[in-house]
Amino acid sequence: MKYFGGCDVGSTYTKAVIIDETGKIVADTTLKSKINAEESAKLAMAEVLQQVGLEKSEDLAYLIGTGYGRNKVPFADENISEISCHAMGVHVTNPDVKAIIDIGGQDIKGISIDTDGTVKNFAMNDKCAAGTGRFYEAMARSFEMSLPEFSKLSLSAKNVIPITAQCTVFAESEVITLVGEGKPMNEIAAGIQMAVAKRCFVMSKKAGATDSITLTGGCAKNDGLKAAIEHVLKLKVVDLSVDPQLMGALGAAEYARQKGLARK
What we know:
The protein is of the alpha/beta class.
């Protein structure tokens, strides 16, 4: 049995996936990224290699690096952009899904998937961190909550307190002021989720979403955001059967499988 790997070195988390010749996931991991991207890649790959009983990355038939630090995966046979890898990862997980909003640590992307899993069209907002993973980390700190706690907070809100600031720094200051004034925390959280959902609107249009969309990246696990996106975009958010944070690494592994098998 041959194995194929994908290593997605993101700005916040590093993910690695190993699949077999049939495309089945046999190992995966998600680790907090180190300052040194190469070290992050080595740690993640060491963990998944151990899960399948392999000693080194060279024991894989083919390995592809992707993500923010894709050029820092020293043992990769090649690297492919995270946009292409997220598209392929979603395609092999659910080929019916044709549009993605990928919310990473530092940017938001809208991606349209073609029938073969390649990218049809995409748009990216990388000029501002508002609405990204780092933004949500700052918001959770403002509420003195963990990210999982914060992600569910807005679901119990009866009303929405709008958050007007577009910048992460100013939004955090605005939230702290509202909390200090004793405003209902779940309604403030609802305002945050609605603000991010509105930022996703243009991305969804660029991704060609018509009736449904899926979310990838760590923020895809944010229940409040999913509800807000369905409300603002009037689209059904499709849940994936595989951890949405692994989509980039899974897509990279699938590309590695295709390229590795083609070398026979």
